[in-house]
């Protein structure tokens, strides 16, 4: 599947050149604008893989647009601008840009910058997914531990018995262990016959 791109560049000729290069290389340009505020709307609507943003644009500058796009993890952002001042580069990095290219650019510079931005974005989203999974697993573990403690206190079960009962109940009901554990904690679910 072709990489989908939104271009936000206020110079129409640069925008046209950029679009032509991208399409020649097999990218799909799904939106283009000369305004920063429209760039954010386009990215939200079209869900591209990459947003190429100029810094100086009417409506909202590219840094503001980049902050919004990267804040919601909507797409990888590449800043393409005529400005190479260090402070702007740092601001772009802080706004979440994953690559920075100075105009006039060559195709031989643009394509690697795109690859780098897309690669970094993929790595970031994979890491965020791992963190979410770890957080979920930690939450499951916490609620199972809490439910075990309640069963041990209320029903006189040993720790391994409480765990086994939660596990067995989950298998019988075909639900995850945390579902049974939450019912123990929140709804007072207990074994029908207490452990001896």
From TrEMBL:
Domain ANTAR positions: 124-185
Keywords, in A-Z order: Phosphoprotein
First and last residue of the signal peptide: none
Matching Pfam families: ANTAR, Response_reg
Modified residues (4-aspartylphosphate): 54
PROSITE patterns: ANTAR, RESPONSE_REGULATORY
Residues of the Response regulatory domain: 4-118
Protein name according to UniProt: Response regulator
Lineage, uppermost ranks: Bacteria, Bacillati, Actinomycetota, Acidimicrobiia, Acidimicrobiales
């Amino acid at each position: 599947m072709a990489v989908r791109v939104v271009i936000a560049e206020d110079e129409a000729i640069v925008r046209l050149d950029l679009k032509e290069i991208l399409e020649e290389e097999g990218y799909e340009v799904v939106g283009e604008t000369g305004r920063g505020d429209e760039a954010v709307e386009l990215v939200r609507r079209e869900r591209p893989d990459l947003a190429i943003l100029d810094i100086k644009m009417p409506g909202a500058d590219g840094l503001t647009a980049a902050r919004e796009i990267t804040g919601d993890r909507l797409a990888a952002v590449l800043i393409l601008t005529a400005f190479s001042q260090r402070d702007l580069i740092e601001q772009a990095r802080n706004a979440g840009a994953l690559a920075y290219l100075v105009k006039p650019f060559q195709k031989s510079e643009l394509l690697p910058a795109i690859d780098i931005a897309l690669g970094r974005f993929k790595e970031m989203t994979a890491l965020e997914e791992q963190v979410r999974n770890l957080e979920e697993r930690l939450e499951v573990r916490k609620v199972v531990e809490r439910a075990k403690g309640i069963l041990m206190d209320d029903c006189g079960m040993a720790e391994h018995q409480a765990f086994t009962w939660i596990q067995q109940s989950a298998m019988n009901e075909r639900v995850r262990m945390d579902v049974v554990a939450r019912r123990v904690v929140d709804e007072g679910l207990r074994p029908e016959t207490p452990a001896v």
